[in-house]
Amino acid sequence: METKSISETNAANDITGGSMATKDPSATKSLANNHNSLRGLLEHQLNDIYSAEMQLTKALPEMAKACNDEELQDAFLEHLDQTKKHVERLEKIFIKLRIEKTGESCKAMEGLIQENKKIILEFEESPVRDSALIIGAQKVEHYEIASYGSVSELADVLGLHKVADLLERTLQEEEFTDKLLSEIAMDINDDAYETEEQSSR
Ligand SMILES: [Fe+2]
Ligand SMILES: [Fe+2]
Q1: CA of 13 to the centre of ligand 1 (A)
Q2: Which of 20, 89, 111, 159 is most buried (CB neighbours < 10 A)?
């Protein structure tokens, strides 16, 4: 049972801001209980996607600014507005279900955003950078799609159908964005290819 006690300690650290010195045994116990129930899992996953969305509200403006193609820039900016709505929906759910925000950061989203920052640093503004940004953005959308798909199923199983509906609405917007990016990619990849062909002539 050593693994369990390590994860309990980590979970308690996340809630107390990562300091071992401030570890509160009662917080550890309640989180352990949470982690062992579907409701606890739902709460944990909602906190994860909340952190992911909050991180995206900061990353998307930078990604939009880095675009060469106007259509792609508009798509990122439009999705920024949707992302702000996603945050609002989650906040409504937190209030409705009386869930406490843990403040725990979604490490997966940190990594995905880091990759996008690297693209902006390593590629100069060009159709190729746009192609790379689309790949990065679609990885982000797929993370969100996986999260919202699972969390809305969990809410349904727990009989929280209105919550599941709200999550489903966000899921549909993530899926729409993913498809839109695939469509934009077709033109941009062509542009990138032609630009390379011309410069190699
Ligand atoms: Fe989102
Ligand atoms: Fe998204």
Answers
A1: 27
A2: 89
Summary count for the chain: helices (H), strands (E) = 7, 0
3-state helix vs strand vs coil in the chain, percent to 5: 85, 0, 15
Query: Is the residue at 132 inside a domain?
Result: yes
Q: How far is the CA of 170 from the centre of ligand 2 (A)?
A: 8
pLDDT digits (tens, 9 = 90+) for 22-35: 444 444 444 445 56
List CB contacts of 28: < 8 A, sequence separation 6 or more: 8, 9, 11, 12
pTM: 0.82
Nearest bound ligand to CA 75? 2
**How many domains, in total, are found in the chain?**
1
Closest CA to 185 of 140, 137, 146: 137
Q: The domain spanning residue 172 has which CATH number?
A: 1.20.1260.10
Q: Which residue has the tokens 């011309």?
A: 198
Q: What would the pLDDT profile of 107-132 be if each residue is shown by its tens digit?
A: 999 999 999 999 999 999 999 999 99
Of the listed ligands, the closest to the CA of 181 is 2
pLDDT of residue 35: 64
Provide the residue range defining the domain that includes 183.
34-200
Cα-to-centroid distance, 109 and ligand 1 (Å): 11
The pLDDT of residue 36 = 84
156 assigned to some structural domain? yes
CA of 5 to the centre of ligand 2 (A): 34
- Asked, for residue 171, whether it belongs to a domain, the answer is yes
Taking the centre of ligand 2 as the mean of its atom positions, its distance from the CA of residue 142, in whole angstroms, is 8
Is 154 a domain residue?
A: yes
Nearest ligand by distance to the CA of 52: 1
